[in-house]
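Bug #77: duplicate submission created two jobs. Keeping one. Sequence:
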Amino acid sequence: MDLPERLNDIRDRITHAEKEAGREDGSVTLVAVSKTFGADVAGQAIDAGQRVFGENRVQEAQGKWPALKQAFPDLELHLIGPLQSNKAADAVALFDVVETIDREKIARAIAAEITQQNRPVRVYVQVNTGLEPQKAGIAPDDTVAFVALCRDELGLTVEGLMCIPPADENPGPHFALLRKLAAESGVEKLSMGMSGDFETAIPFGATSVRVGSAIFGQR
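Kept job's structure:
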């Protein structure tokens, strides 16, 4: 299959999973993860109607997306990789959504830049549901308080929670935990599920899934 066919296949699988879960058609947003692929490849997905994309690195995205966003003003760009505080200004300037708010220092840096640039960026809090030492994210027990800090003290628009379950575990319990934490935190959206497990995430309430290799191919 070529890229448009792979993209349509993923869309069809999302629609089927929505139906199987008794959810409304279109309730799950596909975030096409275009990291490591050039603007020409991203352009193929845009031509096929995709409008929401995810990137892992601020610097790589800066070389690819400004011209595309100018050409297609309805594009929405999500940062889904780790963010260093010295890149906060660049991230706020380019991205519409930052999904990886994982500690207070980053939250404060992003909040300051949103005020400085007067650019209404939405954010997700990344939760380390598996408490993996090598992985970023807020501990589950700290999530409700951290969301409150981001929203009430820093004035961030916390749209939802995001997680990346441990690769060697059943993702279902992690998705269930994220849904529970979102309800307790008073946020509506759940960014969970990737190429290998997005169909599992949808019955647990995912509102967006981050799919890269199943669309763009292996990196």
